[in-house]
Design a protein that fits this description.
Layout (H helix, E strand, L loop, with lengths): L1 H11 L5 H21 L2 H5 L13 E5 L8 E4 L5 E4 L7 H14 L4 E6 L5 H4 L2 H7 L1 E7 L2 E2 L10 E2 L3 H13 L1 E4 L3 E5 L2 E5 L17 E4 L4 E4 L5 H10 L9 E3 L11 H7 L3 E4 L12 H9 L4 E4 H4 L2 E6 L2 E6 L6 H17 L4 H21 L1
Parallel strand pairs: 3-4, 4-5, 5-8, 6-7, 12-13, 13-14, 14-15
Antiparallel strand pairs: 1-2, 1-16, 2-3, 9-10, 10-11, 11-12, 16-17
């Protein structure tokens, strides 16, 4: 009861001092700033990179951060541009803003080749925004049809609303072709589509093409969401062909059910890039996949969930990297907030001020003694 009385008296005698007002102001300001930053960490991270060191290089590759999705943008030496997938709907606007900044820095006015690897929204989610914001000349679409398309017998059909809308918009935008094995020559580079080799897969992910972009010096490989089954088809078909790649865009965000040891042995990459979202519910990239990459002798592994957007320039055997920034450890961020909060309430009066007050108190005591 005595303690309660003490607390009650303290409340009754509580006075709002200048110090308390300042502390309240600092707490509100700190809380507002940290809230804005905390809930927009990924957005902020998109603008915390500098790719100036690789702009206008001989060959550029950007694995753009699109959350739990996938998108790659390649610029060849003659400024031919190639976009492979467009990420998620959630990141469509941020993705296009970042894509535009890269294009502007390289004085690009259009996208020459666009590949939509398969109908899943984490790969085609930004396509409508791309069509709205950029000119796209050539569009390669999956060999999967929509219910609205006629005279396309023998092809699988997807009734996904987004996919249907993307196909309709693509037809209005540019030249549209099915993704089938073929070669496209651009200067001394060859863009080769190796798969798909069938028109009927049980898993939509296996419609994802294997694409290489290569010349006499360098080779990049992109695999969409291809599974181990799709890889097996590729390995069996091209078992007598030697294929070595410098850079492998790892399939299916680094899942366990892709990028087999046999596939890695076949393509023998030096650098592996994984596109995955921060704190994604699938825990991609998978630990077993990472072990396979290490066991296969990959020299460098980069993942967007750790590095943000990944930029790379290639010239012969020289690779330059530039990465974005993602503050992915939110627990540390919260701890920093409470440390600063504690610091605000721990601030005491300035030592000099205390000294002045002690001198004044001493002077008053001397004066009172003289008067006495």
């Amino acid at each position: 009861m005595q303690k309660i009385s003490v607390y009650v008296n303290q409340i009754k005698n509580f006075k709002i001092t200048r110090k308390i007002v300042i502390q309240i102001f600092l707490v509100l300001l700190l809380s507002m700033i940290f809230s804005l930053v905390y809930f927009n960490l990924t957005t902020i991270s998109l603008y915390l990179h500098n790719f100036g060191s690789i702009y206008n290089s001989r060959l550029q590759l950007y694995s753009i951060y699109v959350g739990q999705g996938d998108s790659s943008f390649i610029i060849l030496p003659n400024k031919t541009s190639i976009l492979i997938d467009t990420g998620t709907e959630e990141y469509a606007e941020k993705f296009c803003d970042e894509l535009e900044s890269v294009m502007d820095a390289n004085s690009l006015e259009k996208i020459d080749y666009m590949f939509l690897t398969h109908p899943h929204s984490d790969h085609i989610g930004g396509a409508l925004k791309v069509f709205e914001q950029f000119e796209v000349v050539n569009i390669f679409r999956p060999i999967i049809c929509s219910p609205l398309e006629e005279n396309l017998q023998g092809y699988d059909v997807s009734d996904d609303f987004l996919y249907i809308e993307v196909l309709e918009r693509a037809e209005q935008e540019g030249n549209v072709e099915f993704i089938l094995p073929k070669e496209i020559n651009v200067d001394d580079y060859t863009l080769k589509i190796w798969t798909p080799l069938s028109t009927n897969y049980s898993d939509l992910n296996d419609y994802s093409p294997i694409i290489t972009i290569q010349n006499a010096e360098n080779s990049l490989m992109f695999t969409g969401d291809l599974t181990i089954d799709g890889e097996a088809e590729f390995l069996n078909t091209y078992k007598d062909i030697e294929i070595d790649v410098d850079v492998l865009k790892v399939a299916h965000h680094g899942s366990e059910n892709a990028t087999s040891a046999e596939f890695l042995e076949k393509v023998n990459p030096e650098i592996a890039i994984i596109s995955a979202g921060v704190d994604n519910i699938y825990n991609f990239p998978n630990d077993q996949l990472m072990q396979r990459l290490n066991d296969s002798g990959v020299n460098k592994i980069l993942s967007t969930n750790m590095a943000g957007t990944i930029g790379m320039s290639v010239s012969g055997d020289v690779y330059n990297f530039a990465t974005g920034f993602i503050f992915h450890d939110r627990v540390v961020f919260v701890v920093i907030y409470f440390i600063l909060l504690f610091a605000i309430f721990s601030v005491k009066k300035n030592g000099t001020l205390k000294k002045v007050e002690r001198i004044r108190a001493g002077s008053n005591l001397i004066v009172s003694k003289k008067n006495f």
